[in-house]
Amino acid sequence: MNTNANYDVVIIGSGPAGSLCGIECRKKGLSVLCIEKDEFPRFHIGESLTGNAGQIITDLGLYDKMEEAEFPNKLGVNVIGSLSKNEFFIPILAKTWQVRRSSFDKMLKEKALEHGVEYQTGMVTDVLRDGEKVVGATYKTAAGSQNVNSKVLVDASGQTTFLSRKGVAGKRKVEFFSQQIASFAHFENVERDLPPFSTNTTILYSKQYHWSWIIPISPTTDSLGVVIPKDLYYKECNSPEAAIEWGMNNISPELKRRFKNAEQVEASQSMADFSYRIEPFVGDGWLCIGDSHRFLDPIFSYGVSFGMKEGIRSAEAIATSIQTGDWKTPFYAFRDWSNKGQQIAADLIRYFWIYPIFFGYQMQNPDLRDEVIRLLGGCCFDCEGWKAPSIFSNAIKEYDRKQMETKIAS
């Protein structure tokens, strides 16, 4: 670490968003310190990567390392509806993988170190201000507390949403998908499809917001998640183990069949109220990226992809703000770019949950199929002029209008 503790950029958190932001900032000649509270490797959920994420990884020069790590290749996503009906397949158009996040995140951190990002293990406890401007952070290690100065402080703390909790960013607000609880664990000896489909993601759902994921994360291990409404969780389950058992018995017969001889190899965990947004998420001397400002229903695995893309794009805004002394123009441009892409994804997910059968039909519509596949692959930030986003958005607006009319009439 620099002895004077002054950096162009200080990043809170070294997950995919933080690592990519650090790498891109170093490419632009900026000094970067990343402060991470956990020692790596460490467990993290979010194990299925989109095609867009796969391209970013390849561009980083990590293709061979991903193959050496034996991360399963992901060719697509199989979505299976109630009673194993309403099934459709989402192909992946670019090379990508399923990952064990403990190993994957460590790989990204090592790549950031290669680029000259400096790391400090510690817990960020506060922000430093000069009036309304954020100028650094205070962090705590085993040796005590220390201040570090920054030209830009980046919140990549994920669902910790550090700058929101400190009152710098806006308050965390629940979104449409918020009243759910996800319970998850890792298993071995899960029955898989025959190759080459054996390493694809499988999504099974019974009705709105009642679903599960099966993600092969190694040659022998699968991640299982069960997502159910919060009221149901506390009424009938009240623990991640019970919620997983409930999912086995109620979401799909296919789920129970595949896990008939499976052995759980890691403790069950749960995550509640996991869909939210934060506004504002940029300001004088600071910005938030990835899950630190927004997280959507994880059914289509956008989290890592969006975090990495925002890490890359935020570095452009950071470099411009430091070079020009004007934070508003680049930071507001980053905000608008992020909000537009995130909203396209949110509309797509809501459309699926409201009209799952019609969503399957859209997957077969020759006029929309390619666009829908690419949106599901993570291209929500790169779809200017496409028809599908407007179709989903207009359908959601009409649905919300009718819901409001019904509410007023009652």
Automatic annotation (TrEMBL):
GO terms for molecular function: FAD binding. It comes from the Bacteria. Residues 7-323 form the FAD-binding domain. Gene3D superfamilies: FAD/NAD(P)-binding domain (3.50.50.60). This is Fumarate reductase/succinate dehydrogenase flavoprotein domain protein. Pfam families: FAD_binding_3.
